[in-house]
Prior knowledge:
Blueprint: H1 3-14, H2 16-32, E1 33-36, E2 40-46, E3 49-54, E4 57-60, E5 66-73, E6 77-78, E7 82-87, E8 93-104, H3 107-113, H4 117-133, H5 138-143, H6 145-160, E9 165-177, H7 179-248, H8 250-269, H9 281-298
Antiparallel strand pairs: 1-4, 2-3, 2-5, 6-8, 7-8, 8-9
Helix pairs in contact: 4-6, 7-8, 8-9
Amino acid sequence: xxxxxxxxxxxxxxxxxxxxxxxxxxxxxxxxxxxxxxxxxxxxxxxxxxxxxxxxxxxxxxxxxxxxxxxxxxxxxxxxxxxxxxxxxxxxxxxxxxxxxxxxxxxxxxxxxxxxxxxxxxxxxxxxxxxxxxxxxxxxxxxxxxxxxxxxxxxxxxxxxxxxxxxxxxxxxxxxxxxxxxxxxxxxxxxxxxxxxxxxxxxxxxxxxxxxxxxxxxxxxxxxxxxxxxxxxxxxxxxxxxxxxxxxxxxxxxxxxxxxxxxxxxxxxxxxxxxxxxxxxxxxxxxxxxxxxxxxxxx
Length: 299
């Protein structure tokens, strides 16, 4: 039984070099093959210098010379929501809350050109936000937020390009005002509402006056039209009488006057209640004259 360990030791001693060689080969192969996940990129250095950037899949490096120095995630990242103060062009202090989304597209730049990428982006965003808001008035900041976001994203993209990252989104979550500014804006809003109410009331009164004037003008036009029609009727009647006089002579005129006198007497007699009428003698002659003229016309 003691001969078995001795023989095993002798076998290991004779094949020690082969065993060491196998271990070395295994370690070399293990270090030469690198499997990179889809969501990452590996930065490979050789003697402290950048050698290559490994993409997703199976990659091969030189064992014992190359090493994976950095494993960089290429997933989209979101910076923590930050808040910074800014002053608008009309000297209003506002507090702007921003959020930025980015992803690394060139890991070699991110690794060797910047130390703390999140802090660098946050500082850059704060400076750009203050610069852009300083060129706009408060009303423009509130109403043109989409345009402001676009300008911030474009300015940020130009700055961070040297860091090997891509800004996918930049959002302005909120624009807050201090209490004094809010009170002043509320007072201004109430004054504007009161002004609009007064303008609306004044416009209503003016419209009412215009409509009343239009109604009076229409009534005057109708009265003028009625007078014109009556005048035309009178002119026609006068022309007819004049034609009759020209044809029948003076008797037609006398007959017309007598009929007018008869009509006037008939209107006086239509009065209500008991009344006594004193007529001149010539009034009674009007009846006889009318009958005489009528008889003469009939004959």
